[in-house]
């Protein structure tokens, strides 16, 4: 009994976020013998989704969240969105902010100036945005809304942005040009030796899958021999003991095992 409990339950204290991954020898047979077992530490996907981004607290606060993200990730401040909002209200066009329930690039410029930093809004071509080699706040019109995001970088035909509402996302170049509002970008001038790289592209940013890729692999024809696919299906299935009711079968009336498989149709 002691051996059974010891092998079946792991009662040791584990670090937070740790799960035990176990793969049995044969899923068709009851067995406490394990082929492979290891501790795997996991974390919520949303942590990586919003890595380096200050998530907007209100539906109208994308501007303040984008500015907080840029200041913390590029300038190196440690400000909260609420502090930025208070500063924008104090140094920006307060009455207009309250009236339109949003912040403008002019409000950002005034507040950043109060912090002792130089900044400016520009209009340019897509090549100008890319050639700057630094993050910038850009206005976009997306899903029917005016929105501020932080441009992080461009690579292999894709534009990577820090979105205060959606997290780290990317658009193909053509789509980004369609939603980029008035080719406007907002830059904060920081001496090279004082710049932070918290908004630099990382490997995690480059792992994107578009609809075309999903469809191509989801509906691909079977490329393996049928007997091999049957073997895999048998191993992954459950077994039920049934009476053979096929009168043309040599085993008619006898008990035999049937493999129960699950099939998923694409249409």
UniProtKB/TrEMBL annotation:
Stretches assigned to the Peptidase C39 domain: 56-187
Tree of life domain: Bacteria
Xref: CDD domains: Peptidase_C39G (cd02423)
One GO MF term attached to the UniProt entry: peptidase activity
GO CC term, one of those recorded: membrane
GO biological process, one term: proteolysis
Protein name, as recorded: Peptidase C39 domain-containing protein
